[in-house]
Design a protein that fits this description.
Strand order of the largest sheet of chain A: 1-5-4-3-2-6-7-8
Oligomer: homodimer
CATH topology of chain A: Hypothetical Protein Pfu-838710-001
Number of helices of chain A: 2
CATH superfamily of chain A: Hypothetical Protein Pfu-838710-001
Structural class of chain A: mainly beta
Organism (chains A, B): Litorimonas cladophorae
CATH architecture of chain A: Beta Barrel
InterPro entries (chains A, B): CYTH-like_dom_sf (IPR033469), CYTH_domain (IPR023577), NeuTTM/CthTTM-like (IPR012042)
Number of strands of chain A: 9
Largest sheet of chain A: 8 strands, antiparallel, barrel
Protein name (chains A, B): CYTH domain-containing protein
Helix content of chain A: under 10%
Radius of gyration of chain A: 15 Å
Chain lengths: 155, 155
């Protein structure tokens, strides 16, 4: 088991775009209050990831590489929409930001995440990093698959 | 992906007991109408298994071996009760019956399953094989974790 400690921010502008992004498709097989089960496909690589409940900004995470053909079939079994995004790895002052640019039903949303070694680790914020949304559950990818960004304004 | 084609029967008596059973603990991380996510631990071996919706008596199944320490931690994240059972492999006329003897909250329940190559495959039934319960969803292990056998008579 790994423990994932992560903070999440909205992104402004596109000054962060550099390098080649990875295209990701991901879906959620099932979610309970205590866990989410994610299928992620990136070209011919795929992973099955189980995450535990969020405690503060930390979360238990179990990740297993699986055959891409399995992932493709399990994406068809997922609840909610499949999330389509490109992920950019952006280096800034010795840390890597993962910037996710969403498409489809989540089009218009761009989010940056930074993984930390401890909950109180300090870090430098690039100019294009905006409002922090770590604690806003709407931005969890498992929730974006159920209520996508383009439908937030509808009741 | 494998396709699991299985028939399930109640078991009478104990003439089937021979050999050494395997002790299994299993739980369900989350279930939706389209999938179940099972953690199974057998001593120092463990598996993560995703099953799709049942169509007739067939079901898509994806199974991955995982570290037993991961399984132990994920069992704590499961919904419902952990299922405790011993599994006996019983050979009868060239087919292997898996006989599950349940304990704890499912104590008193003994079920035999046979895996088939096709839905219409015929097979010989040992004397100790009783009523067929393939189509009774109460006997699905994922349901036994939510409503265990010893509580069926309560409303």
């Amino acid at each position: 088991m790994a423990v994932e400690i992560e903070r999440k921010f909205l992104v402004t502008g596109d000054a962060w775009k550099s390098g080649t992004p990875t295209r990701l498709s991901q879906g959620y097989l099932a979610s309970s209050k205590d866990s989410t089960v994610r299928i992620r496909l990136a070209g011919d690589l795929a992973w099955l990831t189980i995450k535990g409940p969020t405690v503060g900004i930390s979360r238990a995470e179990f990740e297993y590489e699986i055959p891409a053909t399995d992932a493709q079939q399990m994406l068809d079994m997922c609840e909610g929409a499949i999330i389509e995004k490109t992920r950019w790895q952006v280096s800034y002052e010795n840390l890597i930001w993962e910037v996710d640019e969403f498409f489809g039903e989540n089009g218009g949303l761009v989010v940056a995440e930074i993984e930390l070694r401890s909950e109180d680790q300090t870090f430098a914020k690039p100019d294009w990093v905006g409002e922090e949304v770590t604690d806003d559950p709407r931005y969890a990818n498992s929730n974006l698959s159920v209520k996508p960004f383009t439908r937030w304004n509808s009741s």
